[in-house]
Amino acid sequence: MTDILKLLEPAGENATDDIIRQIRFLLDSGDLQPGDKLPAERKLAEKFQVARSQVREAFKKLEFYNIIKTMPQSGSVISAIESTALNSLISDILKMDNCDFHSLVEARSIIEINAAKLCAIRRTEEDLKMIESAMNNYNKKIKECGSALEEDLYFHRTIAEGSKNTVLKSMMMTITPDIMVNYAKFNVCKTNFEIPISEHRLLFEYIKNNNAEAASNIMSQHLTGVLNFAKTQQIAL
To answer: Coiled-coil regions in this chain (predicted)?
Structure first.
């Protein structure tokens, strides 16, 4: 394997996306191959001349799309996916450059309200198992840690999958990494957790009972708070 540290340059102003672009270039050139292990986070931060948190943010986006896999004590490895497919996935991430928080949340609301409605109509028994499992994992993480952003977004992702609409699912996948970054930045999930737990349960029950209208309505209600919060941030900026 090529010593990729020698091929990297200091990251530009938008460090996270520049890190992703440089990894994409190494995949294009063949210097990085599926299965290759990436250098340690500390070494990458030094080479890119950025904080380790910015490397971590780039890795979180790449990991969400299964472009890399990170294992405790073992580091991060390029997924065993064909290089052209990896390149296409990275292109999806970089399409989201410079999207403001309100636009992301508004897009999420449009996608998820429709996904919930379709999921209630089209879901299978297997979908219900996945949605319920994701809901229970969220509840468990909340009780243990008081925060469960990734588990929350995964719950919503299972609903998008249950919609059986590949475009809605792809759109959801495209915006989710940036949603995660912005939710963490604005501390969106520091709230009364009893409300989302209750709304998740209602949403699951409406989908289970094929009540499409109620499912879309509760999803709209569920996302209203963060949409209003995003508007205030837009005004503040």
So the answer is: none
Residues 165 and 225 in one domain: yes
The answer to whether residue 201 is domain-embedded is: yes
Number of structural domains found in the chain: 2
CATH number at residue 169: 1.20.120.530
Same domain, 101 and 58: no
Judgement on whether residues 77 and 101 belong to the same structural domain of the protein:
no
SS (H, E, C) the chain: CCCHHHHCCCCCCCHHHHHHHHHHHHHHHCCCCCCCECCCHHHHHHHHCCCHHHHHHHHHHHHHCCCEEEECCCEEEECCCCHHHHHHHHHHHHCCCCCCHHHHHHHHHHHHHHHHHHHHHHCCHHHHHHHHHHHHHHHHHHHHHCCCHHHHHHHHHHHHHHCCCHHHHHHHHHHHHHHHHHHHHCCCCCCCCHHHHHHHHHHHHHHHCCCHHHHHHHHHHHHHHHHHHHHHHHHHC
pTM over 0.70: no
